[in-house]
């Protein structure tokens, strides 16, 4: 067999967690498909060999330009895929956090004109260039935590011009930063103040003007998402928006049953959504429908943690009922300032009752399925992007045990080292 010349070779792993074999449900969620002492080789950003060290070393040749990483007996895993963030925003909500510590609820703050609308004011006032600068810094922090692919939603503009500004900033982030950034249009995140007394007219605007404007510009959004919630978008309004989005060629997502059981999970299944997110209050019936529709159930335990008075999603029940369960951060300035996936994995083990290997599958290959990228990222298999994390511990099962802290030593994105010894490698 001809030796393949490679530009990246990772050797010396205690275990190479491949997550091979596609998204996982049921009992398979527990299987990380780990190769003890495995190795991995890549060329031009894609994996060309993965397996036991002797087999990989026999199949590839290295040269002076090959980056050789010795994992020195630590675990190697796929880069984290974060399938749900709102990371493109200006301003902060630290004062609302203080109010919540004093007992105010997220909904009370929102009803007083704070909450999402607080961030809408700051984001409308920011230029696209300012949003990009803030976004680049946040993507650096995600990279330091081992995230290599991230979905980012708009939804702090809430006017055609401001949503387009946000989506253009998100598109620029994908071009300017090594991480893969997947854009979602979420003009249906909240009803803006100028439509408060006629929310139906805002739904008309979404359907007649905003969605078509986003669809007309290439690369602005892959998905459309709706906050289906009491006092935000009803099931009927959400259905109308999501159906229009589908007609225009978007795959759809739903913020479902986050603060109450409105039937968002059932709606997500009905419209064939790729994923339903949050699901803190979703009923068994809703979860059964998600499982039957193949809609990925995205759990965001950082939000329950940060909201303090919210329940955690019933992830064990989801697994029992046959859902594909994924994990995301929900990073946003209000309900969840958490972006570190290792900490999300910790919360998932402690509060969603996932086993450490299950939680890692949910944060990699299943998260990739939640954004339609399971053929590209989320596992270490030949042909996929060489997005790899070298941990500072000897087993992937130590990620939650260390409470997610200090577990990421090195990060490789598309074959290039972007984090070394826990620090950014400057571009
Ligand atoms: O996922 N639910 C709606 N959106 C976010 C909160 C956004 C914000 O508070 O700024 C969420 O929790
Ligand atoms: Fe969210």
Q: How many helical elements?
A: 16
Q: Quick check: average pLDDT? A: 97
Assess the beta-strand content as a share of residues.
Answer: 15-25%
> What's the alpha carbon Rg, rounded to whole Å?
21 Å
Shape designation? globular
Strands, count: 21
Task: Estimate percent helicity.
Answer: 25-40%
Structural write-up:
By secondary structure, this protein is an alpha/beta fold. 36% of the residues lie in helices and 22% in strands. It has helices at residues 53-59, 94-101, 106-111, 116-125, 128-144, 160-176, 199-216, 235-247, 264-270, 284-293, 301-307, 315-320, 341-351, 356-362, 365-370, 398-401; strands spanning 4-5, 8-11, 15-17, 34-36, 38-43, 46-52, 60-61, 67-70, 76-78, 80-82, 147-153, 180-188, 223-228, 251-256, 275-278, 296-299, 325-327, 388-391, 408-413, 416-420, 423-424. The strands form five sheets. Strands 10-11-12-13-14-15-16-17 form an eight-stranded parallel β-sheet. A five-stranded antiparallel β-sheet has the order 9-18-19-20-21, covered by helices on one side. The protein has a four-stranded mixed β-sheet with strand order 6-5-2-8, with helices on one face. Strand 12, helix 7 (199-216) and strand 13 (223-228) form a beta-alpha-beta unit. The chain is globular and about 70 Å long. The mean pLDDT is 97. The structure holds N-(iminomethyl)-L-glutamic acid and fe (iii) ion. Fe (iii) ion is lined by residues 84, 86, 255, 330.
């Amino acid at each position: 067999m001809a030796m393949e010349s490679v530009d990246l070779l990772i050797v010396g792993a205690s275990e190479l967690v491949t997550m091979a074999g596609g998204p996982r449900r049921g009992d398979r969620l527990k299987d990380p498909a780990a190769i003890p002492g495995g190795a991995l080789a890549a060329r031009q950003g894609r994996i060309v060999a993965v397996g036991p060290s002797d087999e990989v070393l026999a199949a590839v040749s290295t040269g002076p330009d090959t980056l050789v990483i010795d994992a020195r007996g630590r675990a190697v895993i796929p880069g984290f895929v974060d399938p749900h963030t709102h990371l493109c925003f200006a301003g902060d909500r630290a004062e609302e956090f203080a109010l919540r510590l004093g007992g105010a609820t997220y909904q009370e703050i929102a009803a007083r004109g704070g909450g999402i609308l607080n961030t809408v004011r700051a984001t409308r006032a920011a230029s696209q260039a300012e949003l990009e600068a803030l976004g680049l810094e946040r993507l650096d922090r995600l990279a330091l935590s081992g995230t290599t692919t991230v979905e980012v939603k708009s939804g702090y503009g809430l006017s055609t011009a401001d949503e387009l500004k946000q989506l253009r900033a998100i598109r620029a982030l994908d071009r300017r930063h090594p991480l893969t950034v997947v854009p979602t249009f979420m003009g249906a995140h909240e009803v803006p103040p100028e439509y408060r007394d006629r929310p139906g007219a805002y739904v008309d605007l979404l359907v007649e003007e905003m969605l078509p404007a986003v669809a007309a510009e290439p690369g602005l959004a892959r998905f459309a998402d709706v906050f289906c919630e009491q006092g935000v978008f009803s099931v009927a309004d959400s259905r109308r928006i999501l159906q229009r989005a589908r007609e225009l060629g978007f795959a759809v997502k739903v913020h479902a049953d986050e603060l109450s059981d409105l039937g968002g999970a059932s709606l997500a299944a009905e419209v064939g959504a790729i994923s339903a997110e949050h699901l803190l209050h979703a009923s068994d019936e809703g979860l059964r429908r998600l499982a039957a529709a193949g809609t990925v159930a995205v759990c965001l335990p950082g939000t329950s943690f940060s909201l303090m008075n919210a329940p955690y999603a019933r992830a064990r029940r989801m697994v029992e009922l046959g859902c594909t369960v994924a994990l995301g951060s929900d990073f946003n300035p209000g309900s969840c300032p958490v972006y570190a996936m290792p900490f999300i994995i910790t919360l998932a083990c402690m509060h969603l009752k996932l086993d450490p290997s299950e939680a890692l599958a949910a944060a990699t290959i299943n998260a990739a399925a939640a954004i339609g990228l399971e053929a590209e990222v989320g596992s270490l298999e030949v042909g996929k992007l060489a997005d790899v994390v070298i941990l500072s511990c000897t087993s992937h099962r130590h990620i939650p045990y260390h409470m997610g802290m200090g577990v990421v030593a090195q990060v490789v994105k598309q074959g290039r080292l972007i984090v070394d010894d826990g620090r950014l490698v400057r571009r």
